[in-house]
């Protein structure tokens, strides 16, 4: 029996449920899946027992409750956690049931996140990182395997613990790779994901504003949510004041199952990330989703993206609105040829798909 625990992700998270858990279910593993979420969705079936707790449940209480469920269950072979805050659970497990194998799935490195999003003074931020790292590293003695979601482009902070580590990327499933190329004549641009300053959204809006001067039929759809409400208000005000609301639309975040239709109804995908600690260390899943959807892609030139795609993207310099607008124009003019699109579709069909790495994940449980 395998236990999967998450305290911050959606219960039907694309990585956790749709890829990893479903891969385990195909092999007929029995699974107990613990989540902490505001949803009422229950994913239980003949092979999976799903226990969800209210999002307001205290993390320590959640961990204790999960442990009380598990401590008398004798069939458990593996426990996989998906958040750093759940490491105390692994200590409880290893202190009482040493034979159980523990897996720590690290979706994103913590240090780049803190350095990008912290609003505190630099010294306070660095002290906070120091003590958070110290706490996390203390629990490494209770971890048997580490999963990283991204190839590292900086020093591996876990190397010193000599824990077997594997990279399991957020590649797309083959079923979501389009077989049709978009033949829209109107340049339709799309960005999906969190809408924030650090992701270059205001740069993108201003770049499209420049493009509209020479290609007025251009349209941009921003799909997602604002983490910062003030930034959302500021951006909406900018669109109205500059009278570009007909050309640039903001759409609420879509369930992942619906994003494929949204992407395939556009012709150009944009990844306008600014250069920061987050974008220098994390591979955007949207890269593979845009490739699989048959889109021309415009992206700022950052190592995590270039690691996978080198010459079939219209590159722009990070933090450079003029460069971004030029790359968008290039993509608009190139979309009728579809050379980049065809090469990127071949890449996801042959290399960057879940089926290619699925067995690497399953091997952790053999």
Amount of beta strand: 15-25%
- Runs in which pLDDT lies below 50 for 5 or more consecutive residues are none
Order of helices and strands: EHEEHEHEHHEEEHEHEHEHEHEHHH
Note the total helix count. 13
Question: What class, by secondary structure content?
Answer: alpha/beta
Task: For the record, give the distance between the C-alpha atoms at the N and C termini, rounded to a whole number.
Answer: 12 Å
The amount of helix comes to 25-40%
Mean pLDDT: 94
Give the neighbour order of strands across the main sheet: 3-2-1-4-5-6-7
The count of DSSP E runs of length 2 or more, i.e. the number of strands, is 13
Reported for the largest beta sheet, the result is: 7 strands, parallel
Give me the Rg, rounded.
22 Å
Question: What form results from the Cα inertia axes?
Answer: globular
Descriptive overview:
The chain is α/β, with parallel strands linked by helices and 366 residues long. Helices cover 39% and strands 16% of the residues. It is built from 13 helices and 13 strands. It has a seven-stranded parallel beta sheet, sandwiched between helices. A six-stranded parallel beta sheet has the order 10-9-8-11-12-13, with helices on both faces. Helix 1 crosses helix 13, helix 2 (59-70) runs parallel beside helix 3 and helix 4 packs antiparallel against helix 5. The model has no long low-confidence stretch (mean pLDDT 94).
């Amino acid at each position: 029996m395998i236990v999967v625990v998450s305290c911050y992700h959606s219960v039907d998270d694309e990585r956790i449920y749709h890829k990893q858990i479903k891969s385990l279910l195909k092999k007929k593993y029995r699974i107990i899946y613990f989540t902490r979420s505001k949803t009422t969705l229950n994913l239980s079936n003949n092979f999976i027992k799903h226990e969800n707790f209210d999002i307001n449940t205290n993390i320590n209480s959640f961990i204790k409750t999960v442990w009380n469920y598990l401590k008398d269950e004798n069939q458990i072979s593996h426990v996989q956690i998906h958040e750093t805050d759940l490491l105390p659970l692994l200590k409880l497990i290893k202190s009482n049931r040493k034979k159980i194998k523990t897996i720590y799935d690290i979706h994103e490195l913590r240090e780049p996140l803190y350095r990008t999003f912290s609003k505190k003074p630099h010294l306070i931020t660095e002290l906070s990182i120091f003590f958070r790292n110290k706490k996390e590293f203390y629990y490494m003695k209770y971890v048997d395997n580490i999963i990283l979601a991204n190839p590292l482009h900086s020093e591996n902070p876990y190397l010193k613990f000599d824990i077997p580590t594997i990279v399991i990327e957020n590649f797309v499933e083959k079923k979501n790779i389009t077989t049709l190329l978009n033949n829209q004549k109107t340049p339709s641009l799309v960005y999906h994901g969190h809408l924030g300053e650090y992701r270059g959204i205001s740069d993108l809006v201003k770049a499209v504003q420049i493009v509209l001067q020479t290609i007025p039929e251009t349209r941009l759809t921003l799909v997602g949510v604002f983490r910062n409400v003030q930034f959302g208000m500021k951006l909406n005000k900018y669109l109205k004041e500059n009278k570009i609301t007909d050309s640039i639309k903001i759409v609420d975040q879509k369930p992942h199952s619906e994003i494929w239709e949204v992407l395939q109804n556009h012709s150009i995908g944009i990844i306008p990330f600014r250069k920061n600690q987050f974008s220098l260390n994390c591979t955007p899943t949207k890269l593979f989703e845009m490739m699989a959807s048959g889109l021309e892609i415009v992206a700022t030139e950052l190592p995590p993206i270039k690691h996978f795609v080198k010459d079939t993207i219209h590159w722009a310099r990070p933090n450079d609105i003029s460069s971004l607008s030029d790359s968008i124009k290039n993509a608009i003019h190139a979309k009728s040829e579809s050379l980049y699109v065809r090469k990127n579709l071949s890449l996801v069909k042959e290399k960057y798909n879940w089926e290619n790495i699925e067995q690497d994940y399953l091997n952790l449980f053999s």
